[in-house]
Amino acid sequence: DWHKNREKREHFVFDNGCVSCHTNLVDNKLTSPQAQKMHAHYQSLLNTDKQLTCASCHAEVGHSGLNNMLNYWKPEYKIYEKKAAIKKEEIKKAYFGEDYVGPKVENKEGNATKK
């Protein structure tokens, strides 16, 4: 269950994978003042009992767009279900091309037909 696993991401996403490349977290002038402030806060909490990890704030660290993709395949909230079903069909059609056979849909008479 990817949604449940993401709740525990801080336990299996390690900062050394991030900071080995992103060495200038605080003094990077290309980031917003708010990002600089938050990264300074992150550094101030290192080696304390309130320590944060990169994954504490960056929920999609290493997997940009993961939240959207997970909600297409297993929506967290009912409001996403219809949009997710449409997106799944688009993805399957694109992947399988002419070989794709859509789901059976019942018509007004209750007869099942294929899309």
Can you tell me about this structure?
- The chain is elongated, with a radius of gyration of 21 Å.
- With 115 residues, the protein is mainly alpha-helical.
- The mean pLDDT is 83.
- It contains six helices and two strands; from the N terminus they run ααααααββ.
- It has helices at residues 2-7, 16-19, 33-44, 54-57, 66-73, 81-96; strands at residues 104-106, 112-114.
- 43% of the residues lie in helices and 5% in strands.
- A two-stranded antiparallel sheet has the order 1-2.
The radius of gyration is 21 Å
Low-confidence stretches: none
- SS strand fraction: 5-15%
Number of helices: 6
**SSE pattern:** HHHHHHEE
Quantity of strands, as a count: 2
Mean pLDDT over the full residue set: 83
| Strand line-up in the sheet with most strands | 1-2
Principal-axes shape call? elongated
Q: Could you describe the largest sheet, including whether it forms a barrel?
A: 2 strands, antiparallel
Report the span from N to C terminus.
Answer: 29 Å
Fraction of residues in helices? 40-55%
What structural class do you assign from the helix and strand content? Answer: mainly alpha
Notable traits:
115 residues; mainly alpha; two-stranded antiparallel sheet; 6 helices; elongated
What's the structural blueprint in terms of helices and strands?
Elements: H1 2-7, H2 16-19, H3 33-44, H4 54-57, H5 66-73, H6 81-96, E1 104-106, E2 112-114
Antiparallel strand pairs: 1-2
